[in-house]
Amino acid sequence: MLIARVVGTAISTIKDEKVKGRKLLVLKQTDPTGKLIGKPFVAVDLVDAGVGELVLTGHGSSARQTHLTKECPVDAVVMAVIDHLNVDDEVVFRKE
Amino acid sequence: MLISKVVGTTVSTIKDKELTGRKLLILRQVDEIGDVYGKPYVAVDTVDAGVGDLVLTAHGSGGRQTAITKNSPVDAVIMAVIDHLNIEGKTIRR
Lengths: 96, 94
Hints:
Helix content of chain A is 0%, strand content 50%. Chain A is mainly beta.
């Protein structure tokens, strides 16, 4: 899984039948302090995450292990919203 | 999934028979302000995308989960055309 922050949403009308009705979020990976790194990617939201939240994403075939994404052309899902992160005995992030 | 822009088409006569009739588009990834970056790659189009469109691509075994690419030697598929992206308060259209 990756730690990522939700930075936006993707709106699409024409898409694969099996992806219809799914919420697509734009995310960027973060370092352990929550600082954004890398380029944006898109994942299907399973946990009703919102813009600004820190989340965990599952990738590859693992992303199709949920009833919402089974046998869908999907390679990334948001599967958890992070409440807080503890790194080296220090709370480096806490959800507001 | 990756956010990409369609930059061209690939034409191939001799190919695996599972790929016969499939539209192969050339794509480049797009960053948070809509600029293309990185090297081009090819994906099978399942949503009738065109050059200039912003699309989403699914990779690896996820690329074989559509009716069109099932059991095909394919590792990337265009599974959505993006109408617009809202990123950090800005709207990006094609």
